[in-house]
Design goal:
By secondary structure, the chain is mostly helical. It has four helices and no strands. The chain has one domain: Helix Hairpins.
Length: 105
């Protein structure tokens, strides 16, 4: 039962992440949505795999994949957002505050 719960939570996070990629206004919000989708969705599904298969080859691979996926997706998203900002990609008109502008000075 726990396996099904974790995999369903992962599918929901991935679905919400895909909806966020379509609905959000600018590249910064879309990358944030994609990062949450990968880290929370895929890591939750991999946790379900670990619970289902236990200590086996599939469980060990899932256990190794979780920290790799977590760290690589967050670092990649940060690099993409920073590069987009330095390249001059504009924020949405709905953006209230630009905290990074003050940090770059």
């Amino acid at each position: 039962m726990a396996t099904i719960i974790f995999i369903c939570i992962g599918v929901l996070f991935n679905t919400f992440g895909c909806i966020g990629l379509i609905r959000l206004p600018d590249v910064y919000n879309r990358l944030q949505s994609a990062t949450k989708c990968v880290t929370l969705g895929c890591c939750s599904m991999l946790t379900g795999v670990i619970i289902h298969f236990g200590v086996s080859d599939a469980g060990a691979k899932a256990l190794i994949a979780i920290p790799i996926l977590f760290f690589s997706s967050t670092v990649a998203a940060h690099a993409l957002i920073r590069g987009s900002y330095h390249f001059g990609t504009r924020l949405s008109d709905k953006t209230v505050k630009d905290d990074y502008k003050e940090a770059v000075k």
